[in-house]
## 1
Amino acid sequence: MAGHADEAAAIGGGKSAAVAAWDAQNSARRRLILVGRIVVGVVFVSFWEYASGRLIDKLFVSSPSAVSSRLWKWLLEGSLWNHLSITLYATALGFIIGSLVGFVLGLLFGRFQTVADIFDPYITALYSIPKIALAPLFIIWFGIGIESKVAVSASIVFFVVFLNTYAGVRDVNPIFVHATRIMGGNELDVLRHVMIPSAASWVITGLKVSVPYALVGTVIGEFMSSNRGIGFIIAQATGLFDTTSVFAGLVLLGVVGAIINVALRHAETWLLRWKAAN
């Protein structure tokens, strides 16, 4: 039967036996991973619920049932979306601004080595500053509104995207650049047809990594000074020793981060489909 399947595959009649076996093995592995993840999650939540009040004081760890009730209450009151939308809005703005500036400067510095060498010590010095230390300065500059959170988020995203774009451009094979030049291409053609496509995987990896950092930057800004947002909820609950609200905020951030990561993984697969095809 395997021989017949291989003959049919050779004339374009379907998958060979080896490919079909490989697909079946991959499907079984994916199911195993999914079941394993569910089991780990169920065991963790069950142990947390059991340990709360029995092994560890509820004041320190709350419980999954209490956290679920608090999230449900926020959802019914409408406060959940009110705070979450503010955090997501600031995160999106910070991500867009930081990634755009980082991408443009990464292209510029990667393409012109002399410019990169001139600014190298300054970029290194700025990169070495912990971004959380900039938050008070941004609050002084932009106030306690959403602008300061956007600035913190953008400052973190900028360096991730900038460094990845720079590395991607520097990694481009010079043969492709010379070939484009020989065929009469100008600098814009080199950027459009060689630099950006070749560096795309680096840039997309940088964008994927920077989204969670954008969320972290926004929450740090909300910790420092705000009256809305998930960071504000967590900071306020911490001051009141309300552990349930703290865990509810953390769970919310974790869920949002996981959803964003899944969306980015699908976006990466779609944007780099040409690479998979090769």
## 2
Amino acid sequence: MDDPLYREEILDHYYSSPYRGRMERPDCVCDLDNPFCGDQIHVELTVGDDDRIKEVRFDGKGCVISQAATSLLAEHLEGASVDDARKLGPADVVKLLGMPLTPTRMKCGLLGWKAIQQALQQRAAATA
């Protein structure tokens, strides 16, 4: 199987992500879906007093790309500063996935990133 979509690391994040689940008291949450393909993502984050992301959890359903990309993002963002997380862009997500995405797959791959960005924006607005 040469399709990068089915690389072992991607499948591990899809089938058994350690970041899948829910928290008792997240600091910020966001739910998004992709109506074109049916992907759904729910993200939760906790942020420490030092403004670093302590924990990221997600739940959802959908294609390998949407779920694995969110898991890879969670892995990348735990311990990162909120500022660094907000500076992440779509190209960074594609780099984490390690494969090029078609325009259709790009919407799947960026769903978790958009949810995390919205959750952090809501937190910033609530604490301003």
## 3
Amino acid sequence: MTGALINGVDVVRYRTDTPAAAKSELDRTTAVVTGIGITAPNGMGRQAYWEATRAGRSGIGRITRFDPSEYPATLAGEIPGFEAAEHLPNRLLPQTDQVTRLALVAAEWALADAGIDTGSLAEFDMGVVTAAGSGGFEFAQRELCALWSRGSQYVSAYQSFAWFYAVNSGQISIRHGMKGPSGVVVSDQAGGLDAIAHARRQIRKGIPLMVSGGMDSSLCPWGWAALWTSGRVHAGSDPALGYLPFDSRASGQVPGEGGAILILESAETARGRGAHSYGEIAGYAATFDPAPHTGREPALCAAIEMALADAGLAAADIDVVFADAAGVPELDRIEAEAIAAVFGHRAVPVTAPKTMTGRLYSGAGPLDVATALLAMAAGEIPPTINVTPDSDSPLDLVVGGARRATVRAALVLARGLGGFNSAVVLTATEERDIP
């Protein structure tokens, strides 16, 4: 075993030669969230986002980042008014895409929220695991334009990493001097939950602090063309009709940008330094769907059941489900059937606040985790907006405004293009003074 300090508190971690009994003890270590940083289309920062989300305010509108009139789809969840120069040093601007700038800002806010001074910590006691769905599309588009129109000598050297999936983890770790276990997970919309699970694994191995979450932004012509090929993007122009999961009018989804970055620590470490804890990452599971047209059952239900088992909870213990909410009728049907199979007919409140932000891809899961933790603290489930559930829907969908409720345990679901399913179970701590 080796010792470490985080803000003056002793913590313990093990090496590969740690005795089995000690490993077993660490494997049961409770990983809690002590910091939240949010960049979302309907609110920048934890408080602004929560106020908008509980009130049902949407950030979806016609794209302004470029002229979308020549494209079939024109709606997106853009973050308005974000000026990176107001938050980041000038030296970082030439080498970063929009998505990395958002991730860096969210990470800084999350660390501040957790009360962490990274300069006082040992560099190998801090790690970063984030998720990405597309990397730096806007940066790459600009450099490809330079290559094709002016020549290779006009391509930025920063192109070598600014477009890459792992760039957010790399830039966060460099900026804050974090040299512990780090990496990136790429599994589309499910990736954000997978990254948080990897971070929890590192906490259980004894790493004192992990930065995790997901961020995506590909709202440029090149990224927009790529998103359109998914066949899932809504083609209309009315923001109120663009993203209607679990509604008979559903006809696709609206892409968005942003996500959330979280700070994870062991409960013992957080308690020892007097830090506030939003809640515990209590359970996780991931499955992969069988190939289409094989006649085999989708695997989302299995992911839910395994996540509950990992948390040591029964279905009746869950107070709310944050749905993946694809907005694609067949995918919505599969998800509704899976939730009903585990919890029963309209037996648990279900919500999809992402109807206010659009699909954030790798950022969606972490943002839903953050939202669920804020819902626990506030005793309020944010609504699914614009949706009119079918009369025969098996889901108790939270519509028409936020719903007051005691939330002690929440389930967050995310699914990725290609068959990824991920489920995270969150449980409340005793503290309930946020947001």
